[in-house]
Structure to design on (145 residues):
């Protein structure tokens, strides 16, 4: 099978975390397997650089060969595991996968991650320079009289 550059790469940690969350929800091994099969089909059919799946539930059932009556309950299971979200647009629902980054750390550490990202990536690992208009505390200098 040839690599398709339009497909989004999915980390093993992401799939492992989704499988773990499905197991915690008490799904049977067969339902867990079908839910993961459906998740992989959703990810494989994402448009380039997008988290929104353009396939309908009927199309996903034919791709995965899962009974169409089970697709809705499997999508609900994936929603409960926070792997996907379904958003209503018009008469249909769009399936949006949760980015893998959200599975790596707790949400209450988001501010720390953002600060670290800004420091390492945006500022290149350097402390921001002090401007002439600030003193060492970061407060504006008072004009000299």
């Amino acid at each position: 099978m040839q690599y398709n550059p339009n497909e989004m790469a999915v980390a093993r940690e992401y799939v492992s975390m989704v499988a773990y969350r499905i197991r915690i929800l008490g799904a049977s091994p067969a339902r867990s397997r079908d839910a993961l099969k459906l998740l992989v089909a959703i990810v494989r059919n994402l448009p380039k650089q997008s988290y929104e799946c353009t396939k309908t539930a009927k199309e996903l059932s034919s791709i995965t060969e899962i009974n169409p009556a089970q697709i809705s309950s499997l999508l609900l299971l994936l929603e409960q595991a926070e792997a996907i979200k379904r958003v209503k647009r018009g008469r249909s629902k769009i399936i949006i996968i949760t980015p893998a980054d959200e599975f790596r750390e707790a949400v209450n550490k988001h501010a720390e991650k953002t600060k670290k990202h800004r420091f390492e990536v945006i500022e290149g690992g350097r402390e921001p320079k002090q401007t002439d208009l600030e003193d060492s505390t970061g407060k504006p200098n008072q004009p000299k009289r």
About this structure: The two ends are 75 Å apart (CA to CA). Helices lie at 12-24, 29-44, 57-64, 68-80, 110-122.
